[in-house]
Amino acid sequence: MNDRVLSVVSGSGLTVMVREPPGNRLIDMGGEHDDPVQAAITGEMRLLEWEVRSSAVLLGELLDPEFTEIGASGRLWDRHSLINALTQESDAPPYRITVSEMKGRLLAPGIVHLTYVSDENGRRARRSSIWRRSEQGWRLYFHQGTLLPPQEPMPADLG
């Protein structure tokens, strides 16, 4: 894979890598959250960290009070049920989530749409998130994941 690694976040057995495929350009990573798209990307990446996923307080800071999610399984989640499910998980498994094809667009003042592909140990999903700015900062308002078919291994070069 010839993707350029944009960022890597590690901690508690979790490694998250954001890759930029050749020819794609993400918004400039400039100043500290001056850019709404970068603020949404930062929040999205935080939601993948085990320390955040296991803390009702930290999740509550990032999830909008009106948050809803359509999970990759098709299940509908609200803020309360997602926080309960994530914080009930016992131990942090040593897993790795790779994020690729991250793209963001400002839809309107205070509204950002992100799309990306996640890969967690071969379970790939195309993801879409809508972030909105509130008085408390940027919060995830809506998220949807759609499972992708497993990638077929490249055939061995017989030549």
From TrEMBL:
- What is the name of the protein in this document? DUF4440 domain-containing protein
Pfam families documented for this protein: DUF4440
Traced from the root, the source organism's taxonomic lineage reads: Bacteria, Bacillati, Actinomycetota, Actinomycetes, Streptosporangiales
Domain of life according to the entry: Bacteria
- Residue stretches making up the DUF4440 domain: 46-140
Question: From which organism does this entry originate?
Answer: Thermobispora bispora (strain ATCC 19993 / DSM 43833 / CBS 139.67 / JCM 10125 / KCTC 9307 / NBRC 14880 / R51)
